[in-house]
Backbone:
């Protein structure tokens, strides 16, 4: 009796082993397809990638510095149109980022410890556009309007403008930053995605 | 004392914005620019590869992550991808030698929950250089995911239990009638 029941249980398990794969195949989910759209590809070339206002000399508080609007050339390579966005970030003292920094302005006004960055694409009727802070939610402001999209193998020239923060304090009528002879560093990020 | 400290600090009270790098160009490409996955059912996983092309004369290291584009930046009809943790990169960070290409493997796994069936999502895969110059380019690949109808767990479990019971009863029936036949 006992041997019989054990035999039946083994027969049941054997039957399940045989039928489960068949059942699993019949799940109605169909075939997964992965499409690499048109073997599309794009590349971005920037030249130059570095800007030293006044040639690397010291900058002064509350002062505008700008490049020519043809300062940098962005070239789009590949075989698809590209949307591009621009964003900036806070500037920090290279030697000790936590000790001294400038916050990127969100309204185009500078202040103590607040600086402003704009960009201008050549022939763009928007003129100088405020560069917003890079965030998790947004890659930034449109780099160029769709009417000026360079297309594959096209290029755009642009320039930058910087307004330094107001002086941290003044002495004898001259404004100063609270750290001197220091290097402050920031980045401007261009985000590119297929249009 | 404070005034003295200030004066020491402020002999040259000016700063400059510079980039630490002397690089003057950056030329990187990605392929494909867009990937579409169709009929990926809840509970299933799939993989694909994309390419990072380094056309510079120096090596670059890139970190890989996901990004949720705003509705205005997504393809029409595409909703926000629910959870970036369903996407994994191998490797998570990659160094690409000068003038060469490197492949990155991407896995997409949808949890086994029927509420994720029949959806149309979009998320971007971000390729960010780790060695940043003043101007930085982040590259994004559009990933469009459409989910299939998925596993219908209820009927499947019923079917399996039904088969098990049927096999057991059949076996027991054969055993019972054989015993009865032997007894006679």
Residues:
């Amino acid at each position: 009796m006992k041997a019989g029941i054990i035999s039946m249980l083994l027969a049941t398990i054997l039957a399940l082993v045989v039928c489960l794969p068949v059942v699993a195949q019949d799940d109605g989910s169909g075939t997964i397809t992965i499409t690499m759209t048109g073997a599309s590809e794009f590349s971005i070339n920037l030249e130059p990638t570095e800007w030293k206002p006044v040639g690397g000399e010291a900058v002064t508080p509350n002062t505008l510095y700008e490049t020519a609007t043809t300062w940098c050339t962005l070239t789009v390579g590949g075989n698809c149109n590209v949307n591009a966005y621009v964003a900036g970030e806070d500037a920090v003292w290279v030697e000790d980022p936590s000790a001294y920094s400038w916050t990127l302005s969100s309204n185009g006004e500078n202040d103590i410890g607040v600086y402003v960055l704009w960009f201008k694409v050549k022939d763009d009727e928007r003129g100088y556009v405020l560069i917003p802070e890079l965030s998790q939610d947004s890659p930034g402001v449109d780099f160029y309007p769709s009417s000026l999209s360079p297309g594959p193998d096209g290029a755009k020239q642009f320039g930058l403008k910087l307004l330094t923060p107001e002086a941290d304090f003044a002495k004898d009528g001259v404004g100063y930053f609270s750290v001197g002879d220091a290097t402050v560093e920031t980045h401007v990020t261009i985000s590119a995605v297929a249009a | 004392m404070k005034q003295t400290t200030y004066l020491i600090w402020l002999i040259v009270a000016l700063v400059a914005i510079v980039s630490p790098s002397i690089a003057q160009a950056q030329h990187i490409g990605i392929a494909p620019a867009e990937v579409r996955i169709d009929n990926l059912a809840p509970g299933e996983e799939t993989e694909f590869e994309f390419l990072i092309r380094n056309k510079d004369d120096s090596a670059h290291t890139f970190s890989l992550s996901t990004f949720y584009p705003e509705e205005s930046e997504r393809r029409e009809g595409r909703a926000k991808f629910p959870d970036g943790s369903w996407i994994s990169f191998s490797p998570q960070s990659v160094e690409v030698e000068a003038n060469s290409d490197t492949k990155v493997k991407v896995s997409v796994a949808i949890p086994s929950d029927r509420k994720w069936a029949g959806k149309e999502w979009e998320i971007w895969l971000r390729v960010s250089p780790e060695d940043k110059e003043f101007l930085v380019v982040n590259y994004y690949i559009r990933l469009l995911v459409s989910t299939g109808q998925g596993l219908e767990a209820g009927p499947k479990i019923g079917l399996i239990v039904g088969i098990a019971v049927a096999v057991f009863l059949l076996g027991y029936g054969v055993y019972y009638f054989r015993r009865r036949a032997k007894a006679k």
User: Anything to note?
Assistant: The longest strand of chain B covers residues 135-146.
